[in-house]
Amino acid sequence: MRTPTHTLHASQSHSGWDRSREAVLSVPPGTTIELDVADASGGQLGPDSVAEALTDMDMGRVNPTTGPVRVEGAMPGDALQVRIHELRPSGWGWTGLIPGFGLLAGDFPEPTLTHWHYQPSGSEPAAFGDVARVPVRPFPGTLGVAPAEPGPHSVIPPRRVGGNLDTRDLVAGTTLWLPVEVEGALFSLGDTHAAQGDGEVCGTAIESPMTAVVSLDLEPGAAPAFPVFETVAAPRDVEVRDGVIATTGIGPDLMAGARDAVRAMIELLGLRYRLDPPNAYMLASVAADLRISEIVDAPNWVVTCAVPKAIFAP
């Protein structure tokens, strides 16, 4: 692994994207940096927090990103290459149902909060009560550069230039290419997760403070239309070694199909594992993969919600 030559602290963070924001660090291409990252609440939640704290959060402070980092020589039209070398989780995290947020927000109006305690090394899965053990697979939910359009812009929606991608494949060993739209690129990273299912259906994963080590390089004139990434391993094969349990949603609307598949999974987890709906919803968010399984047989498409059977206690 490359040794970082610079360290940024969680206090060197910002909320939202803005091309006019002053960089906290300027580095030449090829530099490796270490970034300490706060949890998605921006430190507003801690191990002793209760569910009501979710309704008291200042939403202007959520999803802080450490940075921005100016990459010397970066110009619009270039690709910023981000190599993720290492992710060091803290050992604590949270998953919450935030009123008004998430795929099934209308179904879950009350705040609910789960705390996770796990081995920072990832040597042991994170326990979800006595029902499930979720593999620790850390990744940053947010990696991006500043958009060309003057800001500020919310950090919540993902963009062409990256941002809140919430893509669970962006683990250590992955390389990500982002399109540069402003001079210097202005790269930031945040929203680190100890584990998440594809879709992050309740709106939160295992939100966890973390330290990331990445290197930043340039490929002149090679900006992709949208972010591109390349992985070096397939850990999902291990996670599904015992197969999956899956539900589906079928119809002409992918969002409706996604909701139907997740609602069916919540019901199934309740029947099989006696989880109440809020806990089943949170477990689906951190462990279930929401996929488009078919999108060519008009007029109906198939959305699948799949949970690895290996996570459940014998």
Average pLDDT metric:
95
Strand ordering within the main sheet:
1-4-15-6-13-16
Please count the helical segments.
4
Estimate what percentage of residues fall within beta strands. Answer: 25-35%
- Estimate percent helicity: 10-25%
Q: Could you characterize what this model shows?
A:
With 314 residues, the chain is mostly beta strands. It contains four helices and 19 strands. It has helices at residues 53-56, 236-239, 254-273, 277-287, and strands at residues 6-8, 13-14, 25-27, 31-37, 65-71, 79-89, 92-97, 112-117, 126-128, 132-134, 139-144, 162-164, 175-179, 187-193, 210-219, 228-230, 244-251, 289-294, 301-308. A six-stranded mixed beta sheet has the order 1-4-15-6-13-16, with no helix packed on it. A hairpin with a 3-residue loop joins β9 (126-128) and β10 (132-134). α3 packs across α4. The longest helix has 20 residues, at 254-273. The chain is globular. It starts with 5 loop residues before the first strand and ends in a 6-residue tail after the last strand.
Characterize this entry briefly:
By secondary structure, the chain is mostly beta strands. The chain has 4 helices and 19 strands.
SSE topology sketch:
Layout: E1 6-8, E2 13-14, E3 25-27, E4 31-37, H1 53-56, E5 65-71, E6 79-89, E7 92-97, E8 112-117, E9 126-128, E10 132-134, E11 139-144, E12 162-164, E13 175-179, E14 187-193, E15 210-219, E16 228-230, H2 236-239, E17 244-251, H3 254-273, H4 277-287, E18 289-294, E19 301-308
Parallel strand pairs: 1-4, 3-5
Antiparallel strand pairs: 2-5, 4-15, 5-14, 6-13, 6-15, 7-8, 9-10, 11-12, 11-14, 13-16, 17-19, 18-19
Helix pairs in contact: 3-4
